[in-house]
Amino acid sequence: MENSQPFPSARRPRILSPRPGCAMLSRPPRSGRYSGDSVRRESMPPRGPRPLLLLLVLTTAGCGGIGVRRANTPGLFEAWRVSAVAEDLSPRTLQTLRRWDLDALYRQHPEQAFVRVQALAEKGPQPELLFALAEMSYLLGRKFEKGTCGDSLCYYYLCAGYAYHYLYDKGGPIVLARKGEEAKAEPFDPGASPFDPRFRLACDLYNAGLAKCIRAAQGIGRLDPRHDFRLPTGDGKGFTLSVVHHGFLWKPEEFGPLLFCEDFQAVGLANQYRTYGLGVPLIATRAANAPSPGHALYPPSISFPVTAFFRFEGSLADLRACRAGRLELYNPLSVQAIDVDGVFTPLETDLTTPLAYFLAQIDFDKVGLGGFLRPDKVQNLSGIYLMEPYQPGKVPVLFVHGLLSSPLTWATMFNELRADPVLRERYQFWFYLYPTASPYLTSAADLREALTNLRASLDRNHDPALDDMVLVGHSMGGLVSKMMTVDSGNDFWRLVSEEPFEKLQATPQEKEALGRVFFFERQECVNRVIFLGTPHHGSKLSPSLPARIARHFIRLPKDALEVVQDISQENPNFLTGLHPNKLPTSLDLLAPGSSALELLAARPKPPGVHYHSIIGIAPSSSTVWLAKWLAGVNRHDPGDGVVPYSSAHLGGVDSEYVVPADHTEVHQHPQAVQEVRRILMEHLQGR
User: Fold this and answer.
1) Least confident segment among 21-35, 114-128, 232-246, 402-416
2) Which of 191, 479, 490, 543 is deepest in the core (most CB within 10 A)?
3) Residue 149 and residue 248 share a domain
4) What range does the domain containing 591 cover?
5) Structural domains counted in the chain
6) How many degrees, rounded to 5, is the angle at CA 280 between CA 301 and CA 154?
7) What are the DSSP E strand ranges found in 379-423?
8) CA–CA distance, 411 with 429 (Å, rounded to integer)
9) Nearest-5° angle of CA 620, CA 625, CA 628?
10) Mean pLDDT lowest for which of 37-46, 192-201, 459-468?
11) What pLDDT, on a 0 to 100 scale, did the predictor assign at position 46?
12) Do 583 and 562 share a structural domain?
């Protein structure tokens, strides 16, 4: 599959604010659990009124308010420090200067005092001198920010370097803490204790110096993650440090511009997954001119998390000469801690902001609505999308969205599941995009073809993990997912014709177009399916007034209509179940009592395949009652407002779990996410 504009063109990040009625930000009430065919409901408190769900948006799967906005107070150091360093040195560093009779010199000539402290530290690198140098470097860097960029950048470089030596040198707090009993035999310096406030401040100074250094280099176009890190100096000579990539599936030449996570605030994702440590969290974008993967689809301008870390090598004199160290870029999805001279060091990471930044650039609304009203416009975008390169040995979890929706609907669940270190170590997450107005029989045929093609491209060594896939489907996506696990026989063909398929008079291309939809075999690679709010027995939304109005605006692909018309002309009265001038839409096939639905629902669970149901029961409210009225659902019937419990319930499943949510949030509810996590952990155990 080619990587040719798989989504509408990337756009500038949207500046968003949380939407008052956004389902993913609301507080969940308590839940009930259903087991087998017996029903037991626990009391669920009513939820407050929310904005009215508009016509047919009753079926949309998610909140459109996911993105980023500019942070109000940018600055990694300012945001995360635990001790204040504003316009002057801290009392501890001033005390150090007084001990060496340098406080007066610092007030009059801070650069000269800095050089004097450098000389003292190189003669005897005491922890207090190293900390003082780190703090002084930071303030000198700020002083020169409006002047010579090279001077400012070098001071920030030294800030990170001296903080690094304070933390990791022989007498530093980290090494001292690791020595344990050995430390008792040596003179103890309380100032080098990891319990001293300077320890956390030194970590912040390291991160701040590194962030300022990278930002200054970017400002003059000297940072390219694909090449060495070039830093200017005040004398105009400059120097170059190597850039090393660790833990990435992306190749170095695929890296595009780097952005700072601290510059953005994620909006629409309730939980922000960050960790504390050393390093600077960044947003990496895939280069626009990166080579096509050839085997998979990546959304354009995809972004991914990076943590930058400076590893300083050599002595303090080498650091002063600005020739010590290298810039290391780590993938926080695979590397959360590193070894620094034998010291286990956690990295500072941010997994959520890069995801929100990416989602802010893609116009998923056009994909969801366009895939419903004009499926032919989205047909060429259909396919399986990967958020990072294929990872052999990891089990794929494929998310399939529902009606009037797009992969954006899975943002909350993806953010939560990927943050779990066990799950992201064992699973890789994929997404299926398809035009939702097309009959789900056609969408299922397209998915089977996409799986076959992707497997043929990826699985040259027969990866066992690809034989153990998990599909997660919301709403109609659950029906598409289930069709991956069953055989058709002749039953689905009989829905449209009483004549044997072999008697059909048509071209090979026309036969192939019909045959791939009505004749299919179970995809052996799919071993588990999770249904969320899936209408196994239909929804009264389909024959309702809103749906009847919507049908007038749907335009199915012309090529499909032409195939049916041509076959009908050559075979009069052959396709009795298809009208030659009006193909059924997904809405038609979702009507209660639909032959296709009941045929699929009656298909037994194949041996070795596991089914799980997560069903929404919307708490009573005027909004839910109105939604049920629009959808033609009896307001007294338990359900999510669009799909009643009786339709979402499927006999013979391995588990069934109920969450207090309506149809738009059943797959985003925290309890649903936890249930999916439980099922995925169970899947790892081979159950």
Assistant:
1) 21-35
2) 479
3) yes
4) 31-36+363-684
5) 2
6) 110
7) 383-386, 395-400
8) 11
9) 120
10) 37-46
11) 36
12) yes
Q: Are strands 427-433 and 383-386 parallel, antiparallel or unpaired?
A: antiparallel
Measured distance CA(75)–CA(170) in Å, rounded: 31
How sure is the predictor about 54, in pLDDT bands with cuts at 50, 70 and 90? very low
Does the predicted model carry a pTM greater than 0.90?
Answer: no
Distance of CA 342 to the CA centre of its chain: 33
CATH number at residue 401: 3.40.50.1820
CA nearest neighbour of 138 among 172, 88, 72, 83: 88
Only one residue has tokens 């408190």, namely 45
The separation between CA 618 and the C-alpha centre of its own chain, rounded to angstroms, equals 27
Top mean-pLDDT range of 18-32, 39-53, 121-135, 232-246: 121-135
Please give, one letter per residue, the 3-state secondary structure of 643-679. Answer: CEHHHHCCCCCCEEEEECCCCCCCCCCHHHHHHHHHH
pLDDT of residue 55: 38
Q: Which of 293, 327, 350 is the last residue of a domain?
A: 350
Considering the domain architecture, whether residues 523 and 648 belong to the same structural domain is answered as yes
Question: In 287-348, at which residue ranges do the beta strands (DSSP E only) sit?
Answer: 303-311, 326-330, 337-340, 343-346
| Same domain membership, residue 671 and residue 546 | yes
Q: Report the C-alpha gap between 251 and 291 in whole angstroms.
A: 10
pLDDT value at residue 224: 75
Q: Which residue has the tokens 């002063």?
A: 320
Do 515 and 389 share a structural domain? yes
pLDDT tens column, 480-503? 999 999 999 999 888 888 889 888
- Residue 162 domain-assigned (yes or no): yes
Q: Average pLDDT in the 610-632 region? A: 73
Which burial class, exposed, middle or buried, applies to 81 when counting CB atoms under 10 A from its CB (0-12, 13-18, 19+)? middle
End of a domain among 350, 377, 403? Answer: 350
Tokens representing 92 are 């501890």
Identify whether 320 is part of a domain: yes
| Residue 52 located in a structural domain | no
Task: Identify whether 2 is part of a domain.
Answer: no
- 333 and 441 part of one domain: no
